[in-house]
Design goal:
By secondary structure, the protein is of the alpha/beta class. Helix content is about 50%, strand content about 10%. α3 links the parallel β1 and β2 (about 100-105). The chain is globular. About 20% of the residues are buried.
Length: about 210
Amino acid sequence: NAQDLAAIQSDIILRFQVRCETLTRDLQVSDAREIRESCLSLFPDLNKIFLIAGSSVPSEDFYALSEETAISLMQVNFQAPILLAKTFFPQLCRTGGNLVGIGTVASIRPRSKNTIYAASKTGFEFFCKGLRHAGVKNRVTVQFYRLGFTRTRMLTKSGLIPVADPDWVALKIIQNLNKDFPSRYLPRWWWVISAVYRIIPWFIFRRL
């Protein structure tokens, strides 16, 4: 919300002595073109887009969600980032920039919980890989991360699996900006967990 963004904005300006602007929009109802024009009015030479927003209801089976909640999950995690990427892409072609999409390790293997969220993020990953193909001839680098557990106010620990510090995650994304890869896990060691998780036999997995 606007109050949280204002606090983050003040912290960034104070710590890094840089210009920082904020815009508050509801991704369920906002017009992607209006968001683009608002951003370009502040930064006409914008050449980097990070599509990080996500919304999930991890505690509920997908069939128990209301229709409104299901639609909201698809709008925030799939429809909105795709429309924003499509709308900003011509600007990135002009400036020769970067577009980074953020997904989730929840999409490693389907489960009854978080299904709509994970399916939406998987669809967004597929879109980003197609956008990467379009970016080759337009000097646009497109990357996608399957983000592991990251520390937030709601998540401070996750059993035996380490929780990544968000500052470390941001630094890694910035350091990798001009590298050419379609998608990767972050932290990278999540590929090991993914490989193990995928080969768990069904008769065991169905009880998890």
